[in-house]
Amino acid sequence: MDLNTVAEIRDARVPAPWRPGDAWLGGGTYLFSEPQPWLRRLVDLSRTGWTPVERLADGSLEIAATCTIAQLSRYAKELAEPAAPLFERCCRAFLASFKIWNMATVGGNLCNGLPAGPMISLTAALDGECLLLAQDGVRRRVRVADFVIGAGRTVRAEGELLRSVTLPARALACRTAFRQASLYGLGRSGVLVVGALDPADGSLAVTVTASTVRPVRLWFPLPPSAPALRAAIEAAVADEEWFDDIHGLPAWRRHMTLRYAEEIRRELGDPSSELEGNGEG
């Protein structure tokens, strides 16, 4: 879509004061998808040259905000860690064409803050941490689970840039389980639940996205009982936080979340148990 209010595109490598009507431009798959009448200038990140995905000295992975879905998918295919399959499953949750995969960025998906954002699901489930850069040069780090605070809402301040997301090595070593449901065969995620079992101490993290207005990550020192897991989810998600739109009513999202969380608890809490189906609705 033409953005006929945009008068200028600025290279992000050249410092300049931030002003009203500015917006960061990554892949542009959202910005150019609908009218943005408040925009006056785009600050283009495409030539920053940031490495899409980089292994750090401590074994963690740093994913640049400009990393595309296609780049992340290709990189994850070479990962040997137990959590590697989760990357592809979350990439596939986009249900998007190759054109979107080659343009849409990890950072853009997080900054949009939409409940069905699968990069939010992936990075929150693996205990990711966002690196944010303010206009005055101040840096701060925020856990992905705390970065998105509502449907389309994040903690990012005006002009603040999401530089990268770092996934700790310990999370990459986790055994994961994935469940997704949609009302339509090729529809947007209405429910997405991920479990991550830490082999180091036996702890279990269950992360709920798509069905809620914000990511909800619950951590248990040991896999909980079925009633304890259900109670934890119901305590963590207020009634008004179950998302309500054309892709699913709150009651259905809540029901499927509880069902999938229990399937994940059984799958990861008891490796010998076998569940029917492939875990996708």
TrEMBL record:
Lineage: superkingdom: Bacteria
Matches recorded under PROSITE patterns: FAD_PCMH (PS51387)
InterPro entries for the chain: Diverse_Substr_Oxidored, FAD-bd_PCMH, FAD-bd_PCMH-like_sf, FAD-bd_PCMH_sub2, Mopterin_DH_FAD-bd
A GO MF term: oxidoreductase activity
Domain FAD-binding PCMH-type stretches: 1-172
Protein name: FAD binding domain-containing protein
